[in-house]
TrEMBL record:
<keyword id="KW-0677">Repeat</keyword>
<dbReference type="InterPro" id="IPR002110">
    <property type="entry name" value="Ankyrin_rpt"/>
</dbReference>
<dbReference type="InterPro" id="IPR036770">
    <property type="entry name" value="Ankyrin_rpt-contain_sf"/>
</dbReference>
<keyword id="KW-0040">ANK repeat</keyword>
<protein>
    <submittedName>
        <fullName>Ankyrin</fullName>
    </submittedName>
</protein>
<dbReference type="InterPro" id="IPR036779">
    <property type="entry name" value="LysM_dom_sf"/>
</dbReference>
């Protein structure tokens, strides 16, 4: 009797018997493709077999394949065959310390959202276990966080149909500190249409009112003008009525910044000014729109020559500011003038002086200050630079009202400053760039911790000053934990590396010989490796930091 003529019940019995063979799945796949009758008989069995074979480490490969390729029909068959969307490996049932439950990173629903498969997502949202005691449909169990994860994944991959479907289902992806909006603008992930949809939805959310004070949209504006330099994105954001004079930080230790301060392209300058950006809002003759437009107030200013093209853009920015009413006495004209002179851009210096820019240095005597004013009026630029500290127009020299008093945290005889320190700058980079040792950095900057060198964003640090004497001490032997790197998921999209101390797993304690810290005027340096020569005067300090 031919195999094909056997009753279907016998076909399934034979299939279940042969399923114990490790290679049976491939064999049955081949058999199922022989003709339509075999396909109809064996396909449900193959789905059940496939799901059962991967029950210990879901999701089953077919589940992942269906999500990646948007095969909602395959999804339905897998769910009917017993595929488990709530397995602990892909679903967090019990609240974690952060309070969230729901989708883990490997869940197929996240992949489907990132790939833009609307019908797959709709099918899994509406799926409900047949068990009468089930807690409702998959979609009802997702919760606000789960939907927010899917929404952000779809938006950051520019899948407008998924975003629109989620909004139509009532999803509210917005929170006080929503990150994906600014991330998408910074990385230019959004089409103009998608960005418009996102902003229109956020603007009408009652819990985000007043919308003009909502920080995520202002961060999006900042990244649009600063990093992406995206004219279209900037124009779309401005149509929402965002506050173009938004203050990104009022911390007295950090130079205040507004959208104009982050802008570099003349076309973007024009957009901000047309939207109502006030160049005089800072009301200061040092820090303001003019000094920001000159663009050499940061820590590496003067180390690299400015190109003719950059000078041209700078000239255009300055002229735009004056066209929109910039007053040197209120928009940072003093710093702008001094910065132009540091770059030997005398044409720009003449323009600023013609518009009324003056330089006032509080450390000068009345006689020297009067002499400085005369030098500016008579365009005696060499005299101006002789009378003015070279770093006067750098952020570290800002003084009260702009940054914390530098004398409270640096050596009083500092000769050169590193300014505008960012969140990613390290002590090791300062040492290498400015040819300074860690001992000197600690001596010149008492605010640095004695046993741990960490820079604070926005602060200035002395990198050149009086000589520092270092005296090596004797070696000691201590039991030390071994640093190991571990990885942990801290947000929906970001993994961060954190340093944790862990002792060795061997039976005996791990013994490490370290040289005790050196002593010198101004503080104590970091621990050093064993066997270090006593005459060492330059150190490279390895630090760790959280990235988010």
């Amino acid at each position: 009797m031919a195999y094909s003529t056997l009753p279907s019940e016998l076909h399934l019995l034979i299939a279940e018997f042969l399923a114990e063979s490790p290679d049976s799945e491939d064999a049955f796949n081949a058999l199922a493709r022989t003709n339509r009758t075999f396909y109809m008989q064996y396909n449900p069995f193959l789905y059940r077999y496939h799901v059962a074979s991967h029950s210990k480490r879901p999701p089953a490969p077919a589940f992942h394949w269906a999500a990646k390729n948007g095969r909602h029909d395959t999804l339905v068959r897998l769910l009917d065959a017993g595929a488990e969307p709530y397995h602990p490996r892909i679903w967090q049932e019990k609240p974690m310390s952060t309070g969230w439950t729901g989708l883990r990173p490997l869940h197929p629903a996240r992949l489907a959202a990132e790939k833009g498969h609307v019908r797959f997502l709709e099918a899994i949202f509406d799926w409900e276990q047949e068990d009468p005691g089930s807690a409702g449909s998959f979609g009802s169990r997702l919760g606000k966080r789960g939907y927010s994860v899917l929404f952000a994944g779809a938006a950051l991959n520019n899948h407008l149909p998924v975003v629109q479907m989620l909004l139509a289902r009532g999803v509210d992806p917005w929170g006080k500190n929503t990150l994906f909006l600014s991330q998408g603008v910074r990385l230019q992930k959004f089409s103009s249409e998608l960005l418009q949809v996102l902003l229109d939805d956020a603007r009408h959310r009652e819990h985000l009112q007043p919308f003009t004070n909502w920080e995520p949209v202002h961060m999006a504006l900042r990244y649009a003008v600063e990093q992406a330099q995206d004219i279209e994105a900037t124009r779309i954001i401005l149509t929402t009525g965002v506050n173009v004079n938004f203050l990104y930080s009022d911390d007295p230790m950090i130079v205040v910044r507004r959208p104009l301060h982050y802008c570099h392209q003349p076309d973007l300058y024009r957009l901000l000014l047309e939207a109502g950006a006030d160049p005089n809002i800072d009301n200061n003759d040092r820090w303001g729109a003019l000094s920001s437009a000159v663009g050499n107030c940061h820590m590496q200013a003067g180390r690299y020559p400015i190109s003719a093209e950059a000078k041209g853009r700078r000239w255009e920015r300055i002229q735009l500011l004056f066209r929109y009413g910039a007053d040197p006495a209120r928009a940072g004209g003093g710093w702008a003038l001094h910065g132009a002179l540091r770059d030997a851009d005398y044409g720009l210096a003449d323009l600023l002086a013609d518009k009324g820019a003056r330089i006032s240095v509080v450390e000068l005597s009345d006689a020297d200050q009067a002499r400085l004013h005369r030098a500016v009026e008579e365009r005696e630029w060499d005299t101006v630079m002789e009378l003015t500290p070279v770093n006067w127009s750098m952020e570290g020299y800002a003084g009260p009202g702009l940054m914390k008093d530098a004398c409270n945290r640096t050596f009083p005889d500092c000769e050169y400053w590193a300014n505008d320190v960012s969140a990613t700058d390290t002590c090791a980079e300062l040492e290498k760039y400015f040819d300074a040792t860690v001992a000197e950095l600690h001596a010149w900057n008492p605010s640095l911790l004695e046993d741990y060198c960490v820079l604070i964003e926005g602060w200035s640090y002395c990198v050149e000053g009086p000589a520092v004497t270092v005296t090596a001490a004797a070696s000691t032997t201590t039991n030390t934990a071994i640093p190991v790197v571990i990885f942990t998921e801290v947000t929906d999209f970001v993994n961060s590396t954190i340093l944790a101390a862990a002792t060795a797993t061997s039976a005996s304690a791990t013994t490490v010989t370290t040289t005790s810290t050196a002593t010198y005027s101004g503080g104590v340096p970091s621990p050093t490796q064993s066997g270090l020569v006593g005459t060492c005067n330059a150190y490279y300090y390895v630090i760790h930091f959280l990235s988010s």
